[in-house]
Give the backbone structure.
Amino acid sequence: MTDTPLLKVSGVSKFYGSRIGCKDVSFELWPGEVLAIVGESGSGKTTLLNCLSTRLMPTAGSVEYRMRDGNFRDLYHMSEAERRFLMRTDWGFVHQNPADGLRMTVSAGANVGERLMAVGDRHYGKIRDTASDWLTRVEIGTDRIDDQPRAFSGGMRQRLQIARNLVTGPRLVFMDEPTGGLDVSVQARLLDLVRGLVNDLGLSAIVVTHDLAVARLLSHRMMVMKDGHVIEHGLTDRVLDDPREPYTQLLVSSILQV
Amino acid sequence: MATPLVVSEVFKSFTMHLRDGIKLPVVNDVNFSVASGECVVLGGPSGIGKSSILKMLYGNYAVDAGQILIDHKDRLVDIARADPRTVLDVRRHTLGYVSQFLRTVPRVSALDVVAEPLVARGIAAPEAREKAAELLTKLNLPQELWTLPPATFSGGEQQRVNIARGFITSHRILLLDEPTASLDATNRRVVVDMIADKKREGVALLGIFHDEEVREAVADRILDVSQFSPRKAVAA
């Protein structure tokens, strides 16, 4: 066990006018840890994810991130350029809709290669080799490397988005409903893939999902949100097997059994 | 002899918010300990709280009051109060659990399901798979099944995968929730032998066994859980 967290979140709140987006959220994320944020639509989980990943500026609170040099930096006090660099290199962001995270009109290989060029890779042959290696890892045939994602199925697009995010070896990945719009069989394949990659690469991840089965499979720890507040927080097994709060009990008892 | 597991003054109840917040007491004032090389069997009728005790020890159930002390990496950890990260570390290195049912992961083969706890402890995949194969052979799981995900296996086959997964590591404490429930006589005997091996290695075992023959064979002592039942206290 390492003794320093990767992310320290304290008192993060976001108001839209007088309406609460999320309120007073604090937690720490450790290296190799996967945290699931669950709750129904409108509970504030995406707002929180966007605040944590600096895609949105919170109304109050701070998020400190441990840089590769070991020093903590307050994300909200970095320059825009520094934040963008972090987003491109050390972080990944997997959107629910792959079209939001991919460039739909350039080839699959270029989608992956673009992130490498952003961190300074210039050798065309090497970039193409790495891109084709990553396509294989996410189970996309290398014969599709020159095709545009427009020609891909939903599941393939989502896998391509994951490859694009992981190619730079990020330490932290944010995921917003990564299996949201997919068929169940495609979901299972994607979940297994993500689970394997997270384990192999020792990534930390924050996954927003309304699907408790996804949370059970992927996460170590879980936060349950309702009306912008974190109402329950703990080991994923514990929250799902012995939910304490009325709302969590309602969520868990609403899971359909097959 | 070392005593890696001590349970002291543990209370547990469930509050059912969806049923007007009624409170269901489960166990009161649970006290016991398990020594290295000993197999303690939880006894008593169904619904008395045996599985709940195992789930509290493993961190799946929260505890209302009391301590669950586990000797983990030469220090004492109180599972009742430990943060999630510590509980996961205890599970990885010290505390094993064989549940009644296997929680299958899509697309992961039986062999890899069994090998996973070793891989999580940093052992190389080929070596972990070799050990997994050894255990599955011992438990008579047909080799044709090893490369398939266990989701479609029969109850007895899934249970053997689960047992192999639980027994593959050298955890100092092992919790067993009816590991022999859906096994035939031959495989029950295999599991009895495997438990005897664990005892010789100095593992502390705590289990639930409804099968009388198995219980007789493995138990060093039986802990009657009805003594902790709040219902009995009300009746008395």
